[in-house]
Amino acid sequence: MQRVCFLLKVRADRIEEYRARHAEVWPEMQQALSASGWHNYSLFLREDGLLVGYLETDDFAAAQEAMAATDVNARWQAEMSGFFESLDGARPDEAMRPLTEVFHLA
């Protein structure tokens, strides 16, 4: 199982709305994530907008590709793109750059 961690930055003026949106993630989005191989997926948000994402998957590239092929993901990403800083024209799911794991206590 591959462990993946990534960072994004939520705009300071949208933090509360971002929290509210994630308190009610669409059921079809949750189902698509699970079906696409995203397991144990968590998002952590610091008060300054730093967002840390963590997930486990057999193959991150395949999991991303499977999600990219879903209609629900396209709709979700379109709605979420305005929440983030520095996407450089990418969708939020395309802007995720996994961090290199340097230690894991098994």
Poorly predicted parts: none
- What share of residues are in beta strands? 15-25%
Averaged pLDDT: 94
Shape: globular
Task: Give the N-terminus to C-terminus distance in angstroms.
Answer: 12 Å
**How does the major sheet shape up?**
3 strands, antiparallel
Helicity level, as a percent range?
A: 25-40%
Protein name: L-rhamnose mutarotase
Secondary-structure blueprint of this entry?
Elements: E1 2-9, H1 15-22, H2 27-35, E2 39-45, E3 50-57, H3 60-68, H4 71-80, H5 92-95
Antiparallel strand pairs: 1-3, 2-3
Protein name: L-rhamnose mutarotase
Pfam family, one: rhaM
InterPro entries: Dimeric_a/b-barrel (IPR011008), Rham/fucose_mutarotase (IPR008000)
Summarize the structure in words.
The longest helix is centred in the C-terminal third of the chain and has 10 residues, at 71-80. This protein is globular. The chain has a single domain, classed as Alpha-Beta Plaits (2-Layer Sandwich). It has a three-stranded antiparallel beta sheet, with no helix packed on it. It is an alpha+beta fold. The chain contains five helices and three strands. It is 38% helix and 22% strand. The protein has helices at 15-22, 27-35, 60-68, 71-80, 92-95; strands at residues 2-9, 39-45, 50-57.
